[in-house]
Structures
1.
Amino acid sequence: MGIEVRKPGLSTTVQDLGREGYYHVGIPPSGALDLFSLIAANLLVGNPERAAGLECAYMGPELVFSDPATLAVTGAEFEPRVNGRARPGWTSFDVEAGDVVTFGHLKGGARLYIAVSGGIDVPEKLGSRSTYGLGALGGLHGRPLEAGDELPVGSDAAAPARERSVPGELRPALPRELEIRVIMGLYDHLLTDRGRSTFLETTWKLTPVADRIGFRYKGEKLEMLEREQPFGAGSDPSNIVDAPYPVGSIQVPGGVEPIVLHRDAVSGGGYAMIATVVSADMDAVAQSAPGSQTRFLPVDLDQALTARRERNERLAQLRDALT
């Protein structure tokens, strides 16, 4: 059983929930940028949550199925079509051998997730099937899909006997104006009081430079302290002696255009991290499209842990609804 990639879309990769445990040796977790949407897609078709699916940025692919399968499409607002006929998102549906799956235009969000019963059965690399493009690791040949590729599909998961649908109240909103919660630090002390206020009071616009490595925002210039740089740091006030980068950390090279590092980011370097996005809001960052307006809202650790707990409760509700 397999899937022919007739058209790959703009950037389509095989992703699962990621490979944990190798960031200290420079290999990022990778995995779906919007984890909730991939988990939902897998549950809709009867797969384990960790099964591999497809992540598609800004444009859907054109796929031809060699065998019957059950599909689900979640994440960004695209219209899935089977042989030109519209099918619903966030709902499982069947395809037959020879069916062609395409997608309409993007109407909201940024990243689409496709799960197929059985999962995309590429080999595991370091415990994950996720694609890490910079390292040519995982996925299909370690790269985004190309026209003519053949995707293997597993046969060890039975499709659900009935159509499943994610309840409307559990489907994430896809706003063009976002409030993203952050914990300030570890290096926000390198901002002046004015620079810190500017960071938190500015409405930042997401630039087209927004991919699996990082999301770059445009707005005001941040004022940083004048200081004597420590030995081993660069000459810019935003430089530090090299330090590890958490996923979600925000750096501001030169004090301009903050960058939120995402799941394919390098593991460390010499830029100050002035804040870190809470884990519960990383899916929302992933679904930001260029031009989206974003405010960064400071929270403390207790609030961040509460946000994570609420997200886990929402995942539990999703599992209850679909299993």
2.
Amino acid sequence: MSGLINSLLSNDIGIDLGTANTLVFAKDKGVILSEPSVVAIYNNSKKVRAVGEEAKKMLGRTPGNITAIRPMKEGVIADFEITETMLRYFIEKAGNQLKFVAPRVVIAVPSGITEVERRAVKESAVRAGARMVYLLDEPLAAAIGVGLPIWEPTASMIVDIGGGTTEMAVISLSGIVYSKSLRMGGDEIDNAISQYMKRAYNLMIGERTAEEIKIKIGSAFPLFEELSMEVKGRDSVAGLPKTLTITSQEIREALDDTFNAMTDAIKETLEHCPPEHSADLVDRGIVLAGGGSMIRNLNLRISDVTGLPCFAADDPLRAVANGTGAVLQDLGKWLENS
């Protein structure tokens, strides 16, 4: 009887616990929260000053007594205490919109993390208030979230590019045939841009500025009309503020090594496909998900390298969160098959 009451009153939620952003999916309601994975704390007392959107605004701008921290690095927990605080904030915030019994939680995690890292995610979620925690591999969650027919005996391929990881997998009969996980993603792209600005122009820029450059003029393949933008930062030699103009072609060249690493991993994944699955992918192609997949012409670069059609998902940012939501709808079945 108590189990029935819990199921009726529980806030079953799915969490895309990302390096850059955390999304929360509520059963029967969809994505109800989407905020940066950032926590700001007071240095002396270690008390939390802000979480999520408010904390991200403080990155690179905090006074000496406050530090803004991103507790997730490369898709895994780098700071357990801060991650637990962040999870509790998101779970409680979701709970305020829903019911009041401790939730069952589905959390998407990179397919390449270790058992120790998986256990750490579970323990953090339980301490943050979850009643039960089920971990779901991110590429599988993304494939479900974009609507790929994973139950069929034919193969589908997903490439999910997040803030800290790039996950690629060939999926058939609701299971992963082969997957590869790179501990690089949008953060690596931002870092490559920052390093290029320092190397080429002696210009020091923050991660927010690097992210802005990526969004405004970043591309993976030549554009029909190249873009440019004005960038402001600090001259590393003179130590004074400096402004200059850069082009999308420069940034594309700066990101060449990063994109090559991604396409090499995609080719390796394809090389491990059984022949019948390879034949399926010739027709179905590759689907891109995750925030990193939104960089201009990335699908064209992957198509050029692999010879396969490549498409961006309709809602790449919410793909993984939507996948956790679909699992929530039939959690008993997934638990039986896991």
3.
Amino acid sequence: MSFLKLDALTKAYGSFVAVDGVSLSIERGEFVSFLGPSGCGKTTTLQMIAGLTQPTAGTVVLGGRDITQDAPNKRGLGVVFQSYALFPHMTVAENVSFGLEMRKIARAERDRQVADTLSLVHLSEMADRYPRQLSGGQRQRVAVARALVIKPPVLLLDEPLSNLDAKLREEMQFELRRIQQSVGTTTIMVTHDQAEALSISDRVVVMEKGRITQVDAPYRLYEQPKTAFISDFVGKMTRLRGVRRAGGVEVAGRLLSCDGGDVAEGADAELLLRPEKIEIVEAGRGMLDGRVISRFFFGSYWLFAVETAAGLATVSLPNQHDKVPAEGEQVSLHWSPASARLVAATGARQ
């Protein structure tokens, strides 16, 4: 039996349906991320779980109990908002202690729990400081501590890293996961950042236009996206135009071996390849010839745009201190057939 169950959860504002029949089962101790672009319904779904938004239809069941009509404070869930929502006039310890005070926990026990939770998030030495005296990452950890100290059955994170700079955001991804694994709290995170979702989640829920389009482990989601939207939204994707033929796909006059999927023979198709699965080799020696039209250096890797007869290919090569192709150079692209997926061409999808 699932620990948290969403059953046909729906939220409509007049004729606009923000969340459309979302059903999902989450196990105890799981870290699940809702991923999607702005306006896809992920935050509204989180708010309905928290009780901050009343669903138009559907139910939220926690530990076998229907909590759909319960007020937020009756659900006992921990929530970390995008803005952190810390009390500026309270110290770190007082912020973390606030929820325990509201629950009438005795002072000695309250102090013990606050100390334990601050130790968990590595902020013991900051207990007497005020939020204005903390860095963004420290404020974020205070917000997590305040949510965890009440020992919630579920921790809800609403874009918790969006206010941090890129380097700190990456560090805090792993810090969040460490904290979650330490306490074993069932955690749901909302994010529009696919790197966040893929790096720390047990499962990722992709939403589009108010509906769930795929629920999967991060690796499977990345390697086996079920729709064209997911293939483009989760990571980069090279799409090469061709025609489905017996034994593979005809691309720029060459028959390439691949799994034909559900594409009918003779139909227009697109060959999907992740940029890191493509090699750049000497012109004429690969599967598809092209010309480098641009290249960008990102430290650990190079990103190339290669113009081919079948469309623009994006190629990612690790920085191994080798000589790399120059802009304007004629090259050839090569990949393993197992790395490619075939889908119906844009406009021809069912």
4.
Amino acid sequence: MILALDIGGTAVKLGLLDREGTICRKASADVAFDGYRTPIFTTVVAAARRFLEESGVSPEGIAVSATGQVETEHGIIIGSNGKILNYEGTRL
């Protein structure tokens, strides 16, 4: 199974996909619940751990899509229009 994460400005969407790309399970979590005082990535990691524990799965890999500009060599968020607190500088 592959863990897929789609990190957006208001929610993270999580999915478990098989090798053929079929979505076997999905969920979402609010990342702006406290006005971004909790860094988005902290919320994403907690949601992913909870999702995997509930699923009883150890993924073979992880696929990530993230809002904003990502410096791909180091996996760092470098832009978000300044609208998301505690996000720029996040290392994926």
